[in-house]
Amino acid sequence: MKLRGLTAIALATGLLAASAAFAQQQPPAGAPDLNAIPPQMPFNLPFGTPVSLEKAQALVQAAVAEANKRGWPEDFAVVDWGGNLVAFARMDGAQLASIAIAEHKARTAARYRRPTVAFENAVQKFGFNYILSLDDVIASRGGIPLVEGGKIIGAIGCSGGTGSQDEALCQAAVAAVMK
């Protein structure tokens, strides 16, 4: 009986010490202050006319051309600002799991009006794990909003390589088509 009592006391003491240590944790250096109230709404670009099929196909073609130059078989999705698929391509040899991931990256970038690297940074650099509880978020780079005339018209998502490879292909496509 004494052993059970001592075990319970030791366990309670350990839990109290752990919770106190957890409560005193500081955010990582450089992390934004979540209590700060910005003067303007971040990522507040308005939505414009949805991306056309012609432009969506040109983006996919530019991404495929860049991927071919680099020898990276990938999947590419272009969505309108509502996250609806407009154009898609899967290169020969691209992993099948990346089909849905490319579309998810594009959908997230369009609906949240920001590159998916913003979510990756929030989780990886700043430990803001609550981001993962937001509906339809993917915290992996490779999704970029398409902006025309200061308005969001859709987004492109690339998947199949590392995050940096995916992002590079998206950026190359956007640079080639969205001049």
Task: List its traits.
179 residues, single chain, 5 helices, globular, Beta-Lactamase, four-stranded antiparallel sheet, alpha+beta, 44% helix
List the helices and strands and how they pair.
Layout (H helix, E strand, L loop, with lengths): L1 H22 L29 H18 L4 E6 L4 E6 L6 H16 L4 H8 L18 E6 L2 E9 L3 H15 L2
Antiparallel strand pairs: 1-2, 1-4, 3-4
Helix pairs in contact: 2-5
Description:
The protein has a domain at 53-177: Haem-degrading domain (Beta-Lactamase, 2-Layer Sandwich). The protein has helices spanning 2-23, 53-70, 97-112, 117-124, 163-177, and strands spanning 75-80, 85-90, 143-148, 151-159. It has a four-stranded antiparallel sheet. The protein starts with a helix and ends with a helix. With 179 residues, it is of the alpha+beta class. The longest helix is centred in the first third of the chain and has 22 residues, at 2-23.
Strand content: 15-25%
Described by the principal axes of the CA atoms, the overall outline is globular
Strand count: 4
Task: Quote the average pLDDT.
Answer: 89
Distance between the termini: 77 Å
Biggest sheet strand order reads: 2-1-4-3
CATH architecture term of the domain at 53-177:
2-Layer Sandwich
Question: Could you list the spans in which at least 5 consecutive residues all have pLDDT below 50?
Answer: 16-24
Number of helices: 5
- Determine and state the CATH class of the domain at 53-177: Alpha Beta
